[in-house]
Design brief:
Layout (H helix, E strand, L loop, with lengths): L4 E4 L17 E2 L11 H11 L6 H21 L24 E2 L5 H18 L3 E4 L2 E9 L2 E9 L5 E5 L3 E3 L20 H8 L4 E2 L4 E7 L22 E5 L2 H8 L13 E2 L1 H5 L9 H13 L13 E4 L1 H14 L7 H27 L8 E10 L2 E2 L12 E3 L16 H23 L12 H18 L7 H15 L6 H21 L11 H25 L23 H4 L1 E6 L9 E6 L14
Parallel strand pairs: 1-4, 8-16
Antiparallel strand pairs: 2-3, 5-6, 6-7, 9-15, 9-17, 10-14, 11-12, 11-13, 13-14, 17-18
Helix pairs in contact: 1-2, 2-10, 8-9, 12-13, 12-14, 13-14
The structure holds flavin-adenine dinucleotide.
Length: 615
């Protein structure tokens, strides 16, 4: 578009952004399957999936541009999966009854990222973009109330740098790692978004967190990462636990194998509770249903908490195997032939996911059901933005998972990539240009102004405090403790008592962290512990705000499940009269409990709001 851009990422290449981990796919209302999909239907599914807590206009725009995203990516060379005839293939994700998810095996994010990276590289080659790898943004600089640049740390040399600009775009991803254990990349953090918040941008719906139902269960206290098994697997896998507690106990004790359990002794609890959507209910619904079974003692995992359920592909192996045999003209295939062909079909669709599962668990999911359990995965909350994706700081725009914009209280599968790409390819090019039209003639922004000096000094102060702290405990020690509070009290189920405890415990932990954290090494070298300390400091603040946000929202909606607000069947109970708003918090200083709550009322003109029903 003719602008000169500086781009920053903390990895050694933007190719390593967390997005590379996205597996299952990206949604678009293409209606290639002729199954009744439309822009309105994608719009409706997304609003309903978010439990009527998303801004209607943004979501409609998202649905409108969804098809263009696919065309753009295909033009960039993204190798989406195709059907035999050459058309782009589709599959289903949760919360929808159409097939609108386009995919590239189980590596959709990687392929989309490589497409974007190729386009980026071209602009770097043309001299339009200067790329700063291994640079971490540690503060936003405001001049006359407008975003005019950033302070970044060169992570190799430790040098603190000033960079000015006419506008700043934050696209720094989600904050799921506040829980320590999540499916996010280890480096994902909230720092860029939080610095912007500290400089005056409102932070919205921080308590809206997505817990994904199909992750490999936790195995021990020393684990530092959780692995997702893509939602696409719920197209083919059936989720169950034993019907009898004694069978669950026998399985946990290793005395019974899941494959030995007869069909009538299995409880396909999603199919039982939600016959219309079955295994493809939205993530929050599936996660809570799994938790409910495990809380009742039917969990099958032999870990400390027995938390695990099965994701079983045996029915699909038989169905697809029989279909494949017929397609080959064999109308009377043997049982072995059906099984062989069914496994081959699964391998073609999900081979890399099955291989990943086997490597991690040493169990073969073609032969025995996968074990899965919900884990922290995605954050719907983020920096508040208007329709133009501009935060409350003029000139500071926020895109992708870092903003709060489109998913309400629960994001539907394959909609994060859609939103991030819509923001980057089809919204910001217009809205940033519109903003710059009045700004660009100001000429180059100087970096020797008092505002840059102040911002640089505050970054240096924070760094020096950690380096000279002489504490006794590692950064991870504090991060793990924070994560435990978050998971137990601000996790899949929340209540008033737990949230109040969490707020007090996190505030105390934060004080202890600043007094007693030990950061080895110095500031002017590669220092991953220092990087972590700076990020965990922001997680402490954020964690407390998440608990405060969850406490004020006296209702259950989407991923925010307050135990006090549920119906007779354990489903979320919204309170539209009092909570049909986006919460938007204003930073008021070190003491997070002083943050001020603002409310953006949600109005629905084109969708009739109703209780969410997937039965
Ligand atoms: C395991 C997994 C699988 C998923 N699968 C899917 C899927 O199939 N479909 C789907 O739609 N969604 C999926 N999601 C969600 C989706 O991947 C994310 O929401 C999305 O990739 C986020 O993209 P982003 O560009 O906003 O952030 P990211 O990809 O996290 O990129 C953030 C960038 O910001 C940079 N950055 C951050 N902070 C700083 C800083 N302070 N200074 C400098 N640079 C910084 C990073 O270096 C990075 O380049 C999945 C998520 C997970 C965890």
């Amino acid at each position: 578009m003719g602008y000169n851009v500086k781009a920053f990422c903390f990895q050694d290449s933007p190719r390593r952004a967390h997005s590379i981990a996205a597996q299952g796919g990206v949604n678009a209302a293409k209606n290639y399957q002729n199954d009744g999909d439309s822009v309105y239907r994608l719009f409706y599914d997304t609003i309903k999936g978010g439990d009527y807590r998303a801004r209607e206009a943004n979501v409609h725009r998202l649905a409108e541009v969804s098809g263009n995203i696919i065309d753009q990516c295909v033009a960039q060379g993204v190798p989406f999966a195709r059907e035999y005839g050459g058309m782009l293939d589709n599959r289903s994700f949760g919360g929808t009854q159409v097939q609108r998810t386009l995919y590239a095996a189980g590596q959709t994010g990687q392929q989309l990222l490589l497409g974007a990276y190729s386009a980026l590289s071209r602009q770097i080659g043309l001299g339009r973009i200067k790329m700063y790898n291994r640079h971490e943004m540690l503060d936003l600089v405001k001049v006359d109330g407008k975003a005019r640049g950033i302070i970044a740390r060169n992570l190799i040399t430790g040098e603190i740098e000033r960079h000015s600009a006419h506008a700043v775009i934050i696209a720094s991803g989600g904050y799921g790692n506040v829980y320590f254990l999540s499916t996010n990349a280890m480096g994902s953090n909230v720092t860029a978004a939080w610095k912007v918040h500290k400089r005056g941008a409102l932070f919205s719906n921080p308590c809206f967190v997505q817990i994904h139902p199909t992750c490999i269960p936790v195995h021990g206290v020393n684990q530092s990462k959780l692995t997702l098994m893509s939602e696409s697997l719920r197209n083919s896998g059936r989720i169950w636990v034993p019907k009898k507690k004694e069978d669950a106990e026998a399985i946990r004790a290793g005395k019974l194998k899941p494959t030995q359990l007869k069909e009538e002794d299995r409880d396909y609890f999603l199919e039982r509770r939600y016959p219309a959507f079955g295994n493809l209910v939205p993530r929050d619904v599936a996660s809570r249903a799994a938790k409910e079974r495990c809380d009742e003692g039917f969990g099958i995992e032999a870990n400390d908490t027995n938390e695990g359920v099965y994701l079983d592909f045996s029915t699909e192996i038989q169905n697809k195997g029989r279909q494949a045999a017929y397609a080959q003209g064999n109308h009377n295939p043997s049982a072995e032939e059906v099984t062989r062909l069914g496994k081959k079909w699964l391998e073609e669709k999900y081979g890399n996911l099955f291989a990943m599962y086997e490597k991690i668990t040493d169990e073969n999911p073609y032969e025995t059901p996968m074990k899965i359990y919900p884990a922290v995965h995605y954050t719907m909350g983020g920096v508040w933005v208007d329709y133009n994706l501009q935060s409350t700081i003029p000139g500071c725009f926020v895109a992708g998972e870092a903003n709060f914009s489109d998913h309400g209280a629960n994001r539907l599968g394959a909609s994060a990539l859609m939103q991030g790409l819509a923001d980057g390819y089809f919204v910001l090019p217009y809205t940033v240009s519109n903003y710059l039209a009045d700004e660009i003639r100001t000429g180059k922004i100087a970096t020797d102004s008092p505002e840059f000096v102040e911002a640089e000094n505050s970054v240096k102060e924070a760094i020096n405090k950690f380096i000279g702290n002489n504490g006794t405990k590692s950064v991870d020690h504090f991060h793990k403790r924070l994560g435990l509070i978050m998971w137990n009290k601000v996790g899949m189920a929340r209540n008033e008592k737990g949230l109040k405890e969490a707020i007090a415990e996190i505030a105390a932990l934060k004080d202890e962290f600043y007094k007693d954290v030990y950061v080895p090494g110095s500031a002017d070298e590669l220092n991953p512990e220092l990087e972590k300390a700076l990020r965990v400091a922001d997680f402490m603040d954020l964690g407390q705000l998440m608990a405060m946000d969850a406490l004020q929202r006296n209702e259950s909606c989407g991923g925010h499940f307050r135990e006090e607000y549920q119906d007779a069947e354990g489903e979320t109970l919204r309170d539209d009269d009092n909570f049909s708003f986006v919460s938007a918090w204003e930073y008021m200083g070190y003491d997070i409990s002083k943050e001020m709550l603002h409310k953006e009322e949600l109005k629905y003109e084109f969708i009739k709001i109703a209780a969410r029903n997937y039965k």
